[in-house]
Amino acid sequence: MVTILRDIVGITGILISFSLFLSPAPTFNNIIKRKAAEQYLPIPELARLLKCMLGVLYGLPIVHPNSRLVLTSNAIGLFLQAVYLTIYLIYAAREIRLKVVKVLALHLAVMTMLVVVVLKVAHTHETRSLIVGIPCVVFGSCMYAVPFQYLQMRATGRVPHASFTLFTMCGLNDFCWLSYAALPPVDLYVLVTSYIGAFFGLIPPQLCTCCLMVLHRHRMTSLTGDHRS
Which residue ranges does UniProt annotate as crossing the membrane (predicted)? Predict the structure, then answer.
């Protein structure tokens, strides 16, 4: 019964994750239509790419058995991020394209190092899970800082699409994977990463509300001052 419940929660997490992975699609569709990346920087896609690469490695049977749902979710994300970044590299300016390629090379170097260590040094599932799980927690936690960049961009008017819906979906996704990891057999590394994500997921909507209130008051004050003058 617990196994069935865990699978249901995990599949729900996959569906929510898939919807989140599709959220940048309109942006890249516009890039294709305009045939230019303009000022857009693929920071979220690069962060998600590394997170998904680590997740795929972690979910492999030779590293952490019985993690097929984690593997599936991250494999889907890895494919979509690769598609987005391919589109970006086609239409980005040469200088920015080179910077993105350097970041991708760094990603590959990190993954190559982990694969070599897992295959040549670690000989048990526990050790392999530890070696890959710790980077998953570290980079996964860093990935959750991306919504704060969206929030800052929204405050400056650079990214108008950041919304409460995105933050809510991120929160639901984190709580799904938190529940999945907490059910037996407990997955410590997914549990910690999801807990951190759920914690940060509660913060952006509140900050967004405060920022909007401050901006509104500032605009009202400016309008009042202009009217009096």
Answer: 6-25, 46-63, 69-91, 103-123, 129-151, 163-183, 195-215
